[in-house]
Specification:
This protein has about 350 residues and is of the alpha/beta class. Helix content is about 55%, strand content about 15%. Strand 1, helix 2 and strand 2 form a beta-alpha-beta unit.
């Protein structure tokens, strides 16, 4: 009986977000055809293997008025030299001492010409329409920032799992955050330069995109542009993934707000669901194979439609229930670790 109740909770939770996602397509997706001058900032530190490709895709935008500003943040390899091999009137390249991503972005901000500032990463592949789709979402004067959709390159299980994770994030953002985005992601976001200047620039933090998004909301709204996409590389090894997400989560914990009934409550409820996601499927597999099949098919269906709409790989959707279990275990472990670090800081 308890197992059936736990399964029902999981299915109801996932149904809520799935149905909300479907309903979101009935909402008015507001845009305005605009062509302000745009500066695409690419901060780079030891990115010799990917910097040329990132620049080439940034320069290949289907947009009439833009520049690409590369800021080499004191790289110890030949990132700067690689970037300089590209000759294009839209490209400007700077080199500064190594001080971190936020200061590199602020250096680019100070040396940019655009009314709109777009940020991307030195390993990012911007979709040809990315800048255009970001700019379209500045449909009102009170919109100060727009975030796009991040997707993950690669074929290994870990890379596929991360792409599915970002598809799930895209699903949540379209359903719940279309007009109030919680984070304008570093790999693909756009900001009104005037709002950034009021803020004093990008905020220095291990999670500068999250903190900058929260802070810039003092000056207006941040919205989501699901049609603006960037494709990035993510960790291929579990240890690298753990270290990356640990840095993100510990950084986020320091800035959670809104009281218990907002960000903290949502986080803790999510962890409760993650616990059920970890425990229930194995129990179903051994105790009720019929219910296990129901769970698997249901989870797969909830991912098939977002995969088709958002442009994911069908094979990843078929693996979604297994990937869900992996992420539930991963994040539950990470969050327990983070809570202990947060509540019992080391001396």
């Amino acid at each position: 009986m308890l197992l059936e109740i736990a399964l029902t909770i999981i299915l109801l939770w996932d149904s809520y977000f799935f149905i909300t996602y479907l309903i979101s397509f009935l909402h008015n997706y507001r845009i305005m055809e605009l062509t302000p001058y745009v500066s695409v900032l690419i901060p780079a530190y030891n990115e010799r293997r990917t910097i040329k490709r990132a620049i080439e895709y940034a320069l290949n935008q289907d947009y009439p008025l833009f520049e690409v500003v590369v800021i080499d943040d004191g790289s110890e390899d030949n990132t700067f030299e690689k970037a300089r091999t590209i000759k294009d009137p839209h490209l400007r390249i700077f080199r500064k001492e190594h001080e971190g991503k936020a200061k590199a972005l602020n250096f680019g901000l100070e040396n940019s010409k655009g009314e709109i500032i777009v940020t991307t990463d030195a390993d990012g592949i911007l979709d040809r329409n990315a800048v255009k789709e970001l700019v379209k979402r500045f449909y009102a004067d009170d919109i100060v920032a727009v975030g796009g959709q991040v997707r993950v390159l690669g074929r290994s299980f870990l890379e596929r799992a991360q792409d599915v994770e970002h598809l799930r994030i895209a699903m949540f953002r379209r359903a719940k955050e279309l007009e109030d985005l919680s984070i304008a992601p570093g790999p693909i976001s756009a900001f009104r330069k005037s709002a950034l200047e009021k803020l004093g620039g990008f905020i220095e933090s291990p999670v500068e995109d999250y903190v900058t998004t929260k802070s810039i909301k003092s000056y207006g709204r941040v919205v989501y542009a699901p049609k603006a996409k960037v494709y990035v590389k993510m960790p291929k090894r579990l240890g690298e993934l753990w270290n990356q997400r640990k840095r993100w989560f510990l950084g986020d914990l320091k800035h959670l707000g809104g009281g218990f009934m907002k960000e903290w409550a949502f986080l803790l409820i999510g962890d409760l669901i993650s616990f059920l996601d970890v425990v229930v499927p194995p129990l179903l597999l051994f105790l009720s194979f019929r219910l296990f099949i129901i769970w698997y098919i249901f989870e797969m269906i909830t991912m098939l439609i977002p995969t088709i709409v958002e442009g994911g790989k069908l094979f990843n959707a078929l693996l979604f229930p297994l990937i869900t279990w992996f992420w539930a275990l991963f994040y539950l472990s990470l969050h327990v670790y983070g809570y202990l670090k947060f509540l019992v800081p080391t001396r």
